[in-house]
Design a protein that fits this description.
heterodimer, A: Cyclophilin, 9-stranded antiparallel sheet, 7-stranded mixed beta barrel, 20 strands, B: alpha+beta, Gyrase A, domain 2, 2 domains, 7-stranded mixed barrel, 4-stranded antiparallel sheet
Chain lengths: 340, 245
């Protein structure tokens, strides 16, 4: 068996993929990676399907050894990474020869980092997915001493990189109306849109609490509702007026009203915002939101085309200035998204 | 006072789907309508629908609204909605009737007497209600496979207790607001613990991971503590499943 040996591992590392759709009626939410875009980036870097499972890492990674020659890619929250003592780039693919040691250290920016392997992690699937869903008892956190099975890898390219959509430090998040948006008074909705929130340290894969100064956003008119469907990105307002953005592992239904829903393409920005990062919510009508999301879907589907060779030594670069422009904060492929 | 009639609502849920709501409060009629409507739309097998579900009062269709126009979907659903009286429509075929053994009262279900008192019923009447009412799976949720069962008669419109019971075990039958919930796992709750079964609502490694489905019916039968302990010792639930013709 090809395997990735785990010598040491942080307390928040688990296998994730795109989750388990199809069980909403049974009360099981989809789950899966908190930053779905990072899964797409990892798949693009390794030239494989986005269905492959990866390790999601919160806080810190761990120490791993390749049980066979393999390829890896690192995406999502920026963490320090070394292969056999040599620092390697994030948002890039690398060779991890048999016996090589990979050390992934603490997070530098963002919240959820990802370690992808060529061929994907091949842990035993349950209900069609390898995603760990802790609150439902599906899968478990990774522990030291485990060897994670790695699938057959058909790809060869390593040393590739990708301009990623900047999303690790909060910013503007686009939302569309939810089923209960109009149950909130206009002044409360306006105040919600005008408020700069801070991501609370109280956050997990179920939901992220948003802090703000000033009064809360509870609306007596919207208080008592029958428990209703939740979709990822829903912003619920609890009884004391605090907004929570509901994430991949939320329950399937909930009794608090939703003031709006984050566009799926902007949910990685919410997931990755570190504690204290500032976030603002910009309401779009459903049609405009649908157009933004459709463009993002198209961009995500063609990420593979924007993978380029990683240039290791700036001294060998012919025209340093042009490289910096291309890889700067504004991505050519995602210019529409950056406006949001 | 009669509540004004409720006109079903069709609303988008983010860009993830469309919700059709049949009541402002959790009534048995609204729930029947939601289950019947979901069944009817599922039977049409629209390619736009990725999956569907039903909650206490609504049917939900997961549809990618960045690919499919909400207004068009809304129109098509409105036509189906107007085609009949959904609260009077028979529920879909292929549903199951479950008979589930449980202990009522005593150390294994310590709030039975308290719940009967809150409902203004004698212990005998309360037991008769809980074992003779054929309950329907109104919806599954909170935990995977966990059913909310209804609807008990009006006496059982008892509120949740103010404080939480810290840990009510999996398989427990808990009562509030004319419903019984059968716990999928150990849960802190404000609902009152009136019965105990060994029924597992979520079996991730089994051929049938979710034994119950919305619309299924459930009848509890009273067994002795000794019988429940025998079932538990064998790791079985003693439940029987019959397809409703």
């Amino acid at each position: 068996m090809r395997g990735l040996i785990v010598y040491q591992v942080g307390p928040g590392v688990a296998v994730q993929d795109l989750g388990r759709p199809g069980f909403l009626s049974m009360g099981l939410t989809r789950g899966g990676a908190a930053d779905v875009l990072a899964l797409h980036e990892g798949a693009a870097l390794l030239g494989q399907s986005v269905d492959h499972a990866a390790l999601e890492m919160v806080g810190t990674g761990g120490t791993f050894e390749a049980g066979a020659d393999m390829r890896i890619a690192l995406t999502g929250a920026q963490m320090s990474a070394q292969i056999d003592g040599e620092t390697v780039a994030w948002n890039a693919s690398h060779a991890l020869p048999k016996g090589a040691r990979l050390i992934i250290g603490p997070t530098r920016s963002g919240t959820y980092g990802y370690l992808h392997v060529g061929g994907g992690l091949e842990t035993e699937p349950t209900l069609g997915s390898r995603a760990t869903h802790q609150s439902c008892g599906l899968g478990a956190l990774i522990t030291a001493g485990q060897t994670l099975p790695v699938g057959h890898d058909k790809g060869r390219d390593v040393g590739m990189t990708l301009d990623v959509l900047p999303r690790l430090s909060g910013g503007v998040v686009r939302i569309v109306p939810s089923m209960q948006t109009m149950d909130f008074d206009g002044d409360i909705r306006a105040r919600f849109e005008a408020t700069t929130f801070r991501r609370d340290p109280r956050a997990n894969r179920q939901g992220i609490r948003m802090d703000s100064d000033g009064p809360g956003f509870a609306n007596p008119r919207a208080l008592s509702i029958v428990s209703e469907v939740i979709v990822p990105g829903d912003i619920q307002i609890t009884g004391d007026g605090t907004p929570f953005v509901l994430m991949a592992e939320s329950q399937t239904t909930g009794g608090y009203p939703r003031i709006g829903t984050v566009l799926p393409c902007d949910l990685p920005r919410v997931a990755q915002a570190p504690a204290g990062a500032e976030l603002r919510f910009e309401l779009m009508d459903l049609e405009a939101g649908a157009q933004v999301q459709a463009r993002a879907n198209a961009d995500w589907a063609k990420l593979r085309a924007s993978v380029t060779p990683l240039v290791r030594d700036p001294a060998t670069m012919q025209d340093l200035l042009s490289y910096q422009l291309v890889s700067g904060a504004v991505s050519a492929t995602h210019s529409d998204l950056d406006k949001g | 006072m009669e509540a004004p009639p409720f006109s079903p609502l069709i609303r988008s849920v983010g860009l993830t789907g469309v919700l059709i709501t049949f009541g402002a409060r959790a009534t048995d009629e609204a729930n029947r309508a939601a289950i019947a409507f979901r069944g009817a739309v599922d039977a049409l097998a629209w390619p736009e629908v990725d999956e569907s579900s039903s909650t206490l009062v609504s049917a939900f269709f997961r549809i990618d609204l960045s690919k499919h126009s909400f207004l068009m979907i809304q129109d098509r659903l409105a036509d189906i909605l107007a085609s009949r009286d959904w609260s009077a429509t028979p529920l879909p075929e292929g549903r199951a009737l479950w008979t589930i053994p449980a202990v009522f009262g005593g150390a294994r279900a310590p709030q039975f007497d308290e719940a009967a008192e809150a409902a203004g019923l004698s212990a005998t009447q309360a037991l008769a209600d809980l074992t003779q009412t054929r309950l329907r799976v109104l919806t599954l949720g909170f935990a995977p496979g966990q059913p909310y069962l209804g609807t008990l008669n009006a006496a059982w419109d008892i509120p949740r207790q103010v404080g939480l019971t810290p840990n009510v075990p999996a398989g427990a039958l808990v009562a509030a607001v004319r419903q019984i919930c059968l716990f999928a796992k150990d849960t802190p709750t404000g609902w009152r613990h009136v019965g105990q079964s060994s029924f597992a609502c979520f079996r991730p490694d089994a051929d049938v991971p979710f034994p119950l489905a919305p619309g299924d019916e459930v009848q509890f039968t009273e067994v002795s503590v000794a019988e429940l302990e025998r079932l538990e010792a064998h790791g079985i639930d003693g439940a029987e499943r019959m397809v409703i013709a």
